[in-house]
Amino acid sequence: MSADRRNEHDLDRLLKQVLKDDLPSETEFRMKKRLAAFRSAPESSDDTKAAQGRRWRILPPVFAQRHAPVGVFRKEVLACLSAAMLVAGVVIHLGGYQSLLANSISLLKMSVSLTEQLRLARSMDCVIRMPALGSSAPRYRIRWVRDGHTRMDVESPRGLERTLWIFQGNVTAFSYESGLSSATPPGPDLQEPLPALVSPNDLARRISETWELQPENKRHISSSLVFIDHRDGATIEVYFDKSSYLPVSLNRKPPKADGKGGPGGVATTAVFIWNQPIEPELLVPSLKSGR
Amino acid sequence: MSLDANAKKRLLLLGKILILLFLVGAAHLYGKVAVVLDPHGLFFIIVGGAAGAFMTFSGLEIMAAVAHAAGALGSAEDLRRSSLFWEAMARNFWILGVMQSILSFVISLRNLSGGLPGITSHLADSLLAALYGMVLAVVCYVPCWKLERRHRCPSPPDGTATSVLACRDKLRATKFSPIVAYTFFVAILLSTVLQSPEAGIGAAATWIVYWPSLLVVFGGTLALMLFLGDAARSSALSPGFAVTGLIGSLFGFIQVLRGISAGSIERVSYALIFILSSCFAALLGMFLLGGPVEDRAAKSAGTAARIPLSRAAWYVFPLVALIFLVTVFLFIITPFERHQ
């Protein structure tokens, strides 16, 4: 046993002497010189590009090779940047970023919704005043039901003057002063803006075809739409109920008399009540009194 | 035999010219040329497409590609490069056509005149640009297909080849070419943006550009490239933009439905512009970065380096964006009903 141990020690000693890890000094010096020369040798252009490409790994090789010398952006910076961009985009969008384009789309959608709700209305009760004409101006009350019957009462400060029944384009008028009724074509009693308010369908047609919706430069959308009537340049403001998209009131302003543009004072104002029951006998012209 | 071939070629050319004249004459007689005419859209697509070509290819390469398309002979490498050029042109025209459609529709929303008929007419006018883009893409694909076929069976070296390889050193010296092309495209884009009734570039940009979606699309693409890491190749950029554009659009559609259920027109409107802006940003990214980067890689590679995913991004995503544009229009004109 001890003889075996002695043999192993001898073998170890022999191996350490033969396989020494330190080289002869001259050999070591030459080797180090070769290594230093290899390290300091300029790389070929292809190697340089590849090395630069490795530092710029997130981009495609062609792009990386072209722009790698910039080298200031590292992967970590770009990761933070991309995360920040994503988060900022979502947060800004959900946080109520204001856009005029979105407001414009909102106005269009409101106009379309208003028109559609007008076409679906069952009844309308509308009172029209003309404050610009002073206290002597007549007051109009228009009542309409879905089957197409319209009744228009014309009131002056003295009381009820006339009643007009309109059905399928035929107008029957009754004068309370003379007590006479007559079938008349739509005439002086139907001056603007009354034709637009005879029925919701007429109003809807004006909104979608004749009046021009005006963009708002406000960042926040209110519950009103502004139109221009190009025939006479009047400005029409329609205020509507945001829960039903039916008009609550309408103001018509003629252009300023000085011709400088812009709306003047309110010439006509209309207030609406929708979908309330209306007594059918009020809408039938055969009841001569109309009361 | 060569005389017969020449006579056949001439007859074929004459036939093509006659067909074109017949089509133009028919359109003129029909009297509706103005209906399919959008000069500014056509200008944007053609000039923008040319700028897109210069982002990757030099003037000499483009001339060689035109010569090859006209029948000039060339080596396999030259034909391959020319084929790449024509495919890039087809892609650029198609992407720009859809981009111009979105841009034109967005600008038209500022002018609310005419009500529903007006906005419908605006959409029809906007879609003309996509039509031009598609037609021009098909026109450019014809030489691409032909050159690809010839590239597989190249002509003998003693042909009348227009060598692009010989000019390569000279081409490399003209480093300014892509920069000029990018600058030129930005100028064209700004001129289109300035068609908006808003005064000044700042106001017009505020009107048209919706920053949140731009941040999401470009940030998302950057994140995707980072995730891909070493695997990220030039061909991953276009699909990256397409994917983030789709994600942005889907996010927008979810918000539209939520806005409808909550009865909020404002939320629906913001979601709609998020969809449009996401599509536009993704198309812009593909045009400015994805396409040129892949073209350069394909040019430097010895083989055709296109992958199906890139091609799908270039040709399918604009089509999807076009469908989204029409869907957005339908959402706009659909009346909103609140729960009463």
What's a concise summary of this model?
The complex is a heterodimer of chains A (291) and B (340). Chain A has 291 residues and is an alpha+beta fold. Chain A is built from eight helices and eleven strands.
What does this structure look like?
The complex is a heterodimer of chains A (291) and B (340). Chain A has 8 helices and 11 strands. Chain A is an alpha+beta fold and 291 residues long. An 11-stranded antiparallel sheet of chain A has the order 6-5-4-3-2-1-11-10-9-8-7, with helices on one face. In chain A, helix 3 crosses helix 4. Chain A is rod-shaped, with a radius of gyration of 44 Å. The C terminus of chain A is likely disordered. Chain B has 340 residues and is an all-alpha fold. Chain B has 2 domains: 162 residues, no CATH class; 131 residues, no CATH class. In chain B, helix 2 packs antiparallel against helix 7, helix 2 crosses helix 11 and helix 9 crosses helix 10. The longest helix of chain B is centred in the middle third of the chain and has 38 residues. Chain B is globular. Chains A and B meet through helix 4, helix 5, helix 6 and helix 8 of A and helix 5, helix 8, helix 9 and helix 11 of B.
Please list the strands of the largest sheet of chain A in the order they lie side by side: 6-5-4-3-2-1-11-10-9-8-7
Helix content of chain B: over 70%
Radius of gyration of chain A: 44 Å
What portion of the residues of chain B fall into strands of 2 or more residues?
under 5%
Give the number of helices of chain B: 12
Indicate the structural class of chain B. mainly alpha
Write the layout of secondary structure elements.
The complex is a heterodimer of chains A (291) and B (340).
Chain A: H1 2-18, H2 25-40, H3 45-55, H4 61-67, H5 75-94, H6 100-120, E1 123-129, E2 139-145, E3 150-156, E4 159-167, E5 170-175, E6 181-184, H7 194-197, H8 200-210, E7 211-213, E8 224-229, E9 234-240, E10 247-253, E11 268-274
Antiparallel strand pairs in A: 1-2, 1-11, 2-3, 3-4, 4-5, 5-6, 7-8, 8-9, 9-10, 10-11
Helix pairs in contact in A: 3-4, 6-8
Chain B: H1 2-30, H2 39-56, H3 59-69, H4 76-108, H5 115-152, H6 168-173, H7 176-193, H8 201-208, H9 211-228, H10 237-262, H11 265-300, H12 308-333
